[in-house]
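A.,

Following up on our hallway conversation. Structure tokens first:
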């Protein structure tokens, strides 16, 4: 007996009333274009739009393009797999309420809608506005700031070591703006071997470095610190990419903890041309005009593996952003490396073009390192450290020149003008505060102690940022050095020179030149901006925490083959490195027998595994018992082994 559908689900009017009155946000979309065919009152109210039916998501919500929400809906239709998000931050315009652009947080699930034959015919979305919950938590977090500060002071020594070994800041330069982010992997052994550096060179060029040492923990951090110090020293001394890479390559050959480290080194000149070397490291990205491209690999494998490291050249146009990164942002849980690389390029292009979140006043390099990080890990989490270093060619800011009357009324004007100029330069907050104090002291000192002889006497301030990132500010008066009027000599000696002492303490250098025509005080300070050193909860509240439980590595014998052959299935990472080493020793009888390793089923190849495979291949060559690696074209292992120039059969 066939049942009446109305007896099962109710009549159309009743179903519509229930659907419309549900407190949860619901919407249904049909067909390949995903036209909205249903949206209940809760959904329309939350999104601030009354007219949605008949529109595609692109037409209904053009203001959230680039925030990875619409993209997810179409991906669910293509793949047939549901996807969910927790506390996703979304910026959009609530037209109907007149609120304008708002920022809200949502928990949601997007699922495919199937016909009676199991074919995907549309998508259903249900969501809950959790903005109040998120705001309450944020308020509680602000109230707990003091407790968090005390906790931060008691953090594990290993994290403190990581922060000490990385550069405290990135240089502020006239023609290049630089920003960086470092996201620590989760877990008790969080400190890793990623590092970054930006090195101003004497001729106006700048060296940019991102590297990755095998493993995690104190040993990896210490190895990273040694490589970084050598590389920085050689770049400062020679300014030559080839020489600098050769130096760290020699060092990597001498120690197991530095063996198979990877590094990308770029030297960028003020005209936009740059030389670079990718020693087993992912290639840099160049983004501009709404698109991004990978520069070609220069060639050569990881450090200390006997590879020859070539140097290549490319060009950065004005306004373009150059991004160096570690493989943690590409090798994310649940993402194929090739697809993840494409995703990184698109997300970077959107961030640089500012087509996603509205970030007025945030420089493109800051968006490239902050928003790119947030967008990439929000759906997958991360299993390894992630380092991003971005540089953008910018037009130099004109030097500051002020000619002012020699009285104390000029102090306020100097402070305002200097603040505006330093902000335009991109100076960090600490530099701004220090320089404002120092310059005001010099101006005050000029007025009080070097009173101009003439009624039309002046004080002149000149400030310019040199190509090496050193700011030079001079304050000149045209008066005589006069002893201040004091009631006693003791008062004079206590006060005399205090302003200069304060200015000197706030500068790297302070020089005073006195002549019969006046006095000039010149201070030097190297400018820098802090890089972001983050943990996962500081990036975005919507990203899953960490990469999940470590997978199992299966070693499968293949007795049906003629040669000695095994297949590996699962992740090759820090959690399975010891197992991989032990199995290779067992299967090759300590490197004395040939072995073919099939990597088709490998789901992840971390740097620790690359080092193990490199050592095993080298041992086999020495013993005339080769270790053959097989990784079919397009596989995870093929992507990584090609990147690090580890020879393998692609089928």
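Then the amino acids I'd put at each of the 651 positions:
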């Amino acid at each position: 007996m066939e049942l009446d559908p109305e007896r099962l689900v109710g009549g159309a009017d009743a179903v519509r009333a229930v659907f419309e009155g549900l407190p949860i946000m619901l919407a249904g979309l049909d067909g390949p274009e995903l036209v909205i065919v249903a949206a209940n009152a809760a959904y329309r109210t939350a999104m601030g739009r009354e007219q949605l039916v008949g529109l595609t998501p692109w037409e209904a919500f053009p203001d959230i393009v680039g925030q990875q929400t619409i993209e997810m809906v179409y991906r669910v239709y293509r793949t047939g797999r549901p996807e969910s998000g927790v506390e996703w931050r979304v910026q959009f315009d609530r037209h109907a309420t007149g609120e304008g652009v708002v920022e809200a947080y949502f928990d949601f699930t997007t699922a495919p809608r199937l016909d009676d034959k199991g074919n995907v015919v549309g998508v259903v979305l249900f969501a809950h506005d959790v903005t109040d919950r998120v705001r309450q938590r944020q308020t509680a977090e602000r109230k707990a700031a003091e407790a968090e500060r005390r906790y931060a002071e008691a953090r594990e020594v290993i994290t403190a070591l990581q922060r000490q070994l990385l550069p405290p800041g990135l240089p502020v330069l006239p023609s290049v703006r630089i920003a960086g982010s470092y996201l620590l992997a989760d877990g008790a052994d969080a400190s890793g071997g990623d590092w970054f550096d930006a090195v101003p060179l004497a001729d106006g060029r700048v060296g940019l470095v991102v590297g990755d040492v095998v493993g995690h923990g104190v040993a990896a951090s210490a190895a990273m610190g040694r490589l970084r110090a050598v590389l920085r020293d050689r770049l400062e001394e020679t300014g030559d990419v080839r020489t600098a890479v050769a130096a760290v390559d020699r060092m990597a050959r001498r120690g197991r903890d530095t063996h198979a480290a990877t590094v990308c080194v770029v030297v960028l000149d003020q005209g936009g041309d740059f030389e670079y070397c990718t020693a087993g490291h992912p290639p840099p990205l160049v983004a501009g005009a709404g698109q991004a491209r990978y520069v070609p690999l220069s060639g050569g494998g990881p450090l200390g593996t006997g590879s020859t490291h070539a140097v290549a050249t490319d060009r950065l146009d004005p306004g373009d952003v150059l991004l160096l990164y570690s493989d943690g942002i590409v090798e994310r849980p649940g993402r194929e490396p090739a697809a993840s690389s494409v995703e990184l390029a698109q997300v970077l292009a959107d961030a640089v073009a500012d087509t996603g979140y509205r970030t007025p006043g945030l420089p493109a390099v800051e968006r490239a390192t902050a928003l790119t990080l947030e967008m990439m890990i929000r759906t997958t989490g991360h299993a390894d450290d992630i380092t991003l270093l971005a540089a953008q060619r910018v037009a130099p800011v004109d030097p500051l020149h002020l000619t002012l009357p020699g009285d104390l009324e000029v102090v306020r004007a100097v402070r305002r003008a200097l603040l505006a100029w330093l902000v335009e330069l991109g100076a960090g907050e600490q530099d701004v505060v220090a320089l404002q104090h120092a310059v005001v002291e010099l101006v005050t000192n000029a007025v009080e102690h070097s009173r101009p002889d003439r009624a039309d006497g002046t004080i002149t301030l000149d400030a310019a940022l040199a190509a090496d990132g050193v700011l030079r500010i001079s304050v000149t008066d045209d008066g005589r050095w006069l002893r201040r009027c004091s009631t006693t000599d003791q008062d004079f000696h206590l006060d005399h020179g205090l302003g200069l002492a304060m200015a000197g303490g706030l500068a790297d250098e302070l020089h005073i030149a006195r002549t019969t025509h006046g006095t000039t005080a010149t201070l030097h300070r190297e400018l820098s901006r802090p890089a972001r050193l983050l943990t996962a909860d500081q990036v975005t509240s919507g990203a899953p925490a960490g990469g999940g439980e470590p997978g199992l590595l299966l070693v499968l014998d293949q007795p049906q083959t003629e040669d000695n052959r095994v297949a590996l299935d699962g992740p090759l990472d820090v959690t399975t490195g010891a197992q991989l080493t032990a199995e290779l020793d067992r299967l090759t009888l300590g490197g004395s027998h040939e072995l073919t390793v099939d990597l088709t089923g490998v789901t992840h190849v971390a740097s620790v595994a690359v080092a193990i495979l490199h050592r095993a291949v080298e041992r086999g060559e020495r013993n005339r018992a080769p270790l053959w690696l097989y990784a079919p074209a397009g596989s995870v292992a093929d992507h990584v082994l090609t990147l690090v120039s580890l020879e393998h059969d692609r089928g």
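The radius of gyration is 30 Å. Curious whether your intuition agrees with the design.

B.
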